Backbone:
């Protein structure tokens, strides 16, 4: 793995909100096809780090490289253009619009000045089939779907543009057990297709089921990094809670 | 999933698979059926009018101007915005065109004049759009202010006179836009059809339309997806203004001239049309075809009301009796009152009938089937942000002068002092005199009374646009009771007060139980109350009330004299009672009682919590519906009190009472530290703000004597423009200086510190 270029590499990221230092000298990397769990307490800086990556926030200092290339995203859709998709906790869908139009939100295919509905619906249908998501019709309004199906639409949107990286922010927070299991299956399948994924979650068991590696943040710093196969849930939990101290004793 | 007979208008919705059912099951088809039925009622009631083909064509012609504006308004409403300025834009563009074109003024060519008018129209749209998006002013405040400022500009430019140019107009092709064509119908209908087709295709089939639905449905999601929602919304306002400009040209084309009343109240008809046509006031839903049909329906309702009762009148001409088919004269005010009700009814249809599938549920109940699933709440996730800033850390630790500056009321009090000094410098001979002070206090009382109620409403995060109209309603009721019903003053006053309070309760009910945004509920009440007021007094001025009633608006000494308990002249009590008026006393008591309630009682804290974060307040067990209901009711009470005082002071009621007062009152509360997004408000601040507005108005009408002995008064037609500007400025500085701390951030940046926006 060491001779491969990371798909994402962040070095020395600092970010402050007024007097609060949300991120301090954070180094972070993600390899192609890897599933990385990003964990930590509330206000540890997980979401901030991901928003800095996607361009929703601007970093104060530090470098970000995507596939070895320096980037400076000014808004989320610039990172989308580079193959980084974020799935938001509240899915960021328009309930009043149908499934197909939501999947191509802002990137609707066109035929002349008109929207090419046929192409859009066909493409949407294909992606949903690939994800094995069962929505009656891609013409259905999103607000008439259940929470799990809405999330499937959000995931379908993310993968319909062949991304290299998908960031999932608390994807299982609003899901039933069944829907969670289906989501984990989907993630494994995407991994098989070579898509790298970052999953922000409080639920360690989910990360241990599909993840390759886990990175722990505490108070804006990285306090630990473990390969799933070499660690236990208890150890990671210890890192989340005690953070620095455990790390300090390990080094000594 | 079963489809209902009433499906929401939206693109690509799942409808029944049969195309026939799709047509007959649509909202628009329902509208057409309703229209045909209504027209048949008209034919039955007044065959002489509705029986002819001309009637149908004239209805379509009258509807076409509103239909054209409705096309633009559909974009705005689907965007989750609102444009109240369209009626003014019609008037302003047609006035500007007329001023340029008319031979008695600038005598320009028709196309140049039209381009200038178009520029003015698009300027309004752009101003609205920028205020609402980049400057974050709520759409109803920005466009309501533009409504009043536009009217002020029309009056200022035309000086209230009509402009006609029939002869010159007949030489130019442009004016055929308003004429009847060779096929026997007005070209205006053609314009409507063309605009509706273009607008309909753009909204339903193109990227611009899809962006509009996405922005109205979930602006955050649209933003994440790379859609520039600011631009989409500005585009909506530009569309709307463009359509209003076209309607202005249609007005000019038809009447070959312009009156300052053109387009009056058009915003109400158009918004009602769009909502009747199936759009949601909460954004994300609506279709152009529905809006245009809605416009025709609303005009048809209006016509049936006007023409439905055939009357004949006998007119004596030269000693001969001639029977004239008279138009049934609706009492003045009945039409706006009715349109206000249509607006409220239309806004209620969407959430209660369509979204909750009322009809499908009734059908299922009748057939004995299980009711269909109701999906009343969308996925749109409300933000949990808190409005109304609390003290920042730097403010808590401030001492001395800096501590004083942390009070939000300080700005208003300083302005008040500065403005008073300005008046004193301009007219030292007159300003500080007893007469002027007394007059200032009286003008202050009316605004102040309503500002006390408004402080509660705005503190809650709501708004009450109906205070001026409720003032008129209460005044008209009291006047009507005393003059026409012969009621004694006490009964009249109590009835009027009760009616005004009831209007406030309706506002409260609509905003809480019926879940309407407060600005829509009170906008409906704005037209209804003013309409009823004009209706009661039949558009005339009523005066000569019993003198015991007028005492409410007199000096206290006159009340005492009336009851024969006057103190001896020259004593302290005499001077005191001679200096203050009864109404000032009323305001004083009201302000102290309700000022303390808002400042330091649990109810006051509930008001601010509700406005700050309604969801959090709900979770904490505060009955926010009750708090908002009571506040809106209280605002209605204050307004009706102001109405009682108003007619007592003037000893008469005119239908003009309280016009534009809503702007004054809202501006007072905002200047006095209230936040337009809710969460803060104090009575002291509101009263200081009311004083600022009073002084501004007094200064604007002050006769200034220049050093060379000539005197100068600002043309009064321009006053509305100034008051509108002040309201916008107050809201802008609330948002940008108080909430976003623009100055602080600027200072930090100058010092080279890294800062971040609060968002």
Residues:
């Amino acid at each position: 793995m060491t001779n491969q270029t990371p798909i994402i590499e962040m070095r020395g990221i600092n970010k402050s909100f007024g007097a609060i230092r949300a991120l301090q000298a954070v180094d972070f990397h993600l390899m192609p096809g890897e599933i990385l769990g990003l964990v930590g307490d509330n206000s540890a800086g997980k979401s901030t780090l991901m928003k800095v990556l996607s361009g929703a926030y601007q970093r104060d200092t530090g470098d970000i490289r995507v596939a070895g290339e320096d980037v400076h995203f000014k808004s989320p859709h610039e990172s989308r253009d580079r193959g980084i998709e974020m799935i938001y906790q509240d899915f960021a869908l328009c309930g009043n619009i149908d499934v197909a139009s939501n999947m191509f939100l802002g990137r609707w295919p066109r035929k002349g000045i008109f929207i090419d509905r046929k192409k859009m619906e066909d493409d949407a249908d294909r992606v949903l089939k690939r994800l094995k998501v069962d929505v009656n019709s891609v013409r259905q309004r999103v607000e008439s779907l259940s929470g799990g199906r809405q999330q499937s639409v959000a995931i379908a949107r993310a993968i319909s543009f062949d991304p290299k990286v998908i960031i999932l922010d608390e994807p299982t927070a609003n899901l039933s057990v069944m829907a969670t299991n289906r989501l984990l299956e989907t993630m494994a399948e995407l991994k098989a297709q070579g898509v790298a994924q970052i999953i922000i979650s409080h639920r360690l068991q989910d990360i241990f089921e599909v993840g390759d590696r886990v990175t722990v943040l505490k108070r804006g710093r990285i306090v630990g990094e473990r390969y799933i196969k070499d660690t236990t849930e208890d150890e990671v939990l210890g890192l989340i809670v005690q953070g620095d101290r455990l790390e300090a004793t390990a080094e000594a | 999933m079963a489809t209902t007979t009433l499906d929401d208008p939206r693109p690509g919705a799942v409808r029944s698979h049969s195309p026939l059912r799709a047509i007959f099951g649509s909202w628009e088809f329902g509208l057409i059926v309703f229209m045909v039925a209504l027209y048949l009622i008209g034919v039955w009631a007044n065959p002489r009018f509705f029986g002819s083909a001309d009637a149908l064509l004239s209805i379509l012609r009258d509807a076409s101007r509103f239909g054209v504006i409705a096309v633009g308004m559909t974009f705005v409403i689907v965007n989750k915005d609102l444009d109240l300025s369209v009626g003014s834009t019609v008037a302003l563009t047609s006035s500007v065109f007329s001023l340029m074109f008319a031979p008695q003024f600038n005598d320009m060519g028709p196309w140049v004049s039209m381009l200038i008018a178009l520029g003015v129209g698009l300027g309004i749209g752009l101003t609205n759009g920028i205020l609402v998006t980049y400057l974050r002013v709520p759409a109803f405040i920005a466009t309501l202010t533009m409504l009043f400022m536009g009217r002020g500009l029309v009056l200022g430019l035309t000086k209230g006179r009509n402009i006609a140019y029939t002869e010159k107009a007949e030489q130019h092709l442009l004016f055929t836009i308003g004429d009847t064509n060779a096929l026997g119908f007005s070209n205006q209908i053609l314009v409507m059809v063309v605009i509706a087709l273009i607008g309909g295709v753009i909204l339903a089939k193109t990227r611009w339309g899809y962006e509009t639905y996405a922005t109205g449905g979930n602006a955050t999601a649209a933003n994440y997806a790379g859609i520039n929602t600011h631009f989409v919304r500005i585009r909506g306002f530009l569309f709307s203004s463009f359509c209003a400009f076209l309607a202005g040209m249609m007005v000019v084309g038809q009447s070959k001239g312009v009156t300052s009343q053109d387009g009056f109240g058009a915003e109400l008809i158009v918004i009602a049309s769009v909502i009747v046509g199936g759009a949601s006031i909460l954004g994300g839903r609506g279709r152009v075809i529905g809006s245009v049909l809605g416009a025709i329906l609303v005009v048809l309702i209006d016509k049936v009301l006007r023409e439905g009762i055939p009357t004949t009148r006998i007119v004596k001409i030269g000693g001969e009796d001639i029977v004239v088919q008279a138009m049934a004269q609706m009492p003045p005010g009945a039409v706006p009152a009715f349109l206000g009700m249509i607006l409220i009814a239309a806004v209620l249809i969407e959430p209660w009938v369509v979204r909750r599938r009322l009809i499908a549920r009734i059908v299922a109940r009748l057939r004995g089937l299980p009711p269909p699933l109701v999906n009343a709440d969308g996925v749109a996730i409300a933000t949990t942000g808190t409005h109304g800033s609390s003290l920042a850390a730097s403010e808590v630790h401030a001492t001395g002068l800096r501590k004083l500056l942390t009070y939000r009321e300080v700005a208003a009090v300083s302005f008040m002092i500065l403005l008073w000094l300005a008046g004193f410098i301009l007219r030292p001979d007159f300003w500080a005199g007893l007469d002027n002070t007394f007059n200032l206090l009286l003008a202050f009382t009316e605004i102040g009374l309503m500002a006390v109620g408004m402080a509660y409403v705005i503190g809650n995060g709501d708004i009450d646009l109906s205070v001026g109209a409720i003032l008129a309603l209460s005044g008209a009721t009291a006047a009507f009771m005393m003059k026409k019903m012969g009621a004694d003053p006490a009964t009249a006053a109590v009835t009027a007060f009760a009616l005004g309070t009831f209007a406030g309760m309706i506002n409260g009910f609509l905003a809480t139980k019926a879940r309407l945004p407060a600005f829509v509920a009170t906008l409906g009440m704005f037209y209804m109350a003013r309409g009823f007021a004009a209706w009661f007094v039949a558009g005339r001025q009523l005066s000569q009330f019993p003198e015991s009633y007028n005492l409410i608006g007199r000096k206290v000494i006159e009340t005492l004299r009336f009851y024969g308990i006057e103190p001896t002249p020259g004593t302290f009590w005499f001077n005191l009672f001679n200096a203050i008026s009864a109404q000032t006393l009323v305001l004083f008591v009201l302000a102290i009682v309700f000022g303390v309630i808002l400042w330091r009682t649990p109810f006051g804290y509930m008001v601010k919590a509700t406005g700050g974060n309604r969801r959090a307040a709900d979770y904490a067990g505060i009955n926010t519906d009750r708090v908002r209901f009571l506040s809106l009711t209280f605002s209605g009470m204050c307004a009706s009190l102001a109405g009682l005082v108003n007619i007592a002071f003037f000893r008469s009621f005119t239908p003009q009472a309280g016009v534009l007062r809503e702007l004054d009152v809202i501006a007072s509360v905002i200047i006095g530290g209230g936040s337009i997004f809710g969460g803060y408000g104090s009575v002291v601040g509101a009263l200081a703000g009311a004083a600022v507005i009073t002084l501004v108005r007094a200064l604007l009408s002050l006769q200034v004597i220049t050093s060379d002995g000539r005197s100068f008064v600002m043309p009064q037609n321009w006053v509305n423009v100034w008051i509108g500007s002040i309201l916008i400025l107050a809201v802008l500085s609330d948002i940008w200086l108080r909430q976003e701390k623009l100055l602080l951030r600027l200072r930090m940046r100058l010092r080279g510190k890294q800062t971040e926006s609060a968002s």
Notes: The first strand of chain A starts at residue 8 and ends at 17. Residues 8-96+167-251 of chain A form a domain with the Rossmann fold fold (CATH 3.40.50.300). The two ends of chain A are 28 Å apart (CA to CA).
